[in-house]
Amino acid sequence: MITLLRSRRSIRKFTGQKISKDIQDLLIEAMLRSQSSRNIRPWEFIIVDDKKKLEHLSKAKQHGSGLIKGAALAVVVIADTNKSDVWVEDASIASIQLQLMADSLGLGSCWVQIRNRMATDELSSDQFVKQALEVPDNYSVESVISIGYPAESPKPHSKENLQYDKVKYGSFSKPFYQD
User: Fold this and answer.
1) Is residue 73 a contact partner of residue 144, using CB atoms and an 8 Å limit?
2) 167 in any annotated domain
3) Is 158 helix (H, G, I), strand (E, B) or coil?
4) Which of 34, 38, 173, 176 is the most buried (most CB within 10 A)?
């Protein structure tokens, strides 16, 4: 697991190669095995591989969503906001679990934040995606995870760049790591 965490990077450029059904099944299993508060599982997932829909979803934000159009598929992570008051956390856990599984299978992925973002000055990204994919009003969209075979290989973040000063011991004023 630490090897995966050390090498994982957001991938924004994809080869265009399709993802097999067997691999898609593994991605789905990873999402469905995601933990949730009180095991409520408020999340649901919409898998999009239609190029026209991916192109449309790439306009879900004013900046930062264009990469969706180049992905082999996108997983739209939504949650029923009436089922859980911590749906954001539950949907986020499922999103990252999906990304880790994708990486372990040789795929690349990138999280595109939708909640609290804008598609236009008047239209939220949430509403944009909900309209595009016919999502009911009682659901909210947390993220769109773009997935595909990577066409880039960003270098891993070095251990020297990790912010160890953000780790405290026993209280906020005491750093865990001392010089």
Assistant:
1) no
2) no
3) coil
4) 34
Q: Is 84 among the domain residues?
A: yes
What residues make up the domain containing 10? Answer: 2-154
Q: Is the pTM of this model over 0.85?
A: yes
Indicate whether 68 belongs to any domain.
Answer: yes
Instruction: Give pLDDT tens digits for 60-73.
Output: 999 999 999 999 99
**Closest by Cα among 146, 159, 157 to 68:** 146
The tally of domains found in the chain comes to 1
Q: Which two tokens stand for residue 139?
A: 């659901």
pLDDT of amino acid 179? 66
Residue 165 C-beta-side C-alpha neighbours within 13 Å: 3
Residues 6+ apart with CB under 8 A from 163: none
Report the pLDDT averaged over residues 38-48: 98
Q: Quote the pLDDT of residue 177.
A: 87
C-alpha closest to that of 47 among 147, 138, 116? 147
Whole-number average pLDDT of the chain = 97
Contact between 135 and 78 (Cβ < 8 Å): yes
> What does residue 110 show for φ and ψ, rounded to 5 degrees?
-145, 130
Measured CA to CA, the distance from residue 81 to residue 160 in angstroms comes to 40
Beta strand segments in 1-153, E: 43-48, 73-80, 108-113, 139-148
